Amino acid sequence: MPRPKYKRVVLKISGEALQGDKGYGIDLRALDSISKEIKSVYTLGIQMAVVIGGGNIFRGEIAAREGMDRSTADYMGMLATVINGLALQDSLERMGVPTRLQTAIEMREVAEPFIRRRAIRHLEKGRVVILACGTGNPYFTTDTTAALRAIEISADAVLKGTKVDGVYDSDPLKNKKAKKFKRLKYIEVLNKGLKVMDGTAVTLCMDNKLPIIVFNLFKKGNVRKVILGEEIGTIVKE
Question: Which pLDDT score, from 0 to 100, does residue 177 have?
Answer without folding.
Answer: 86
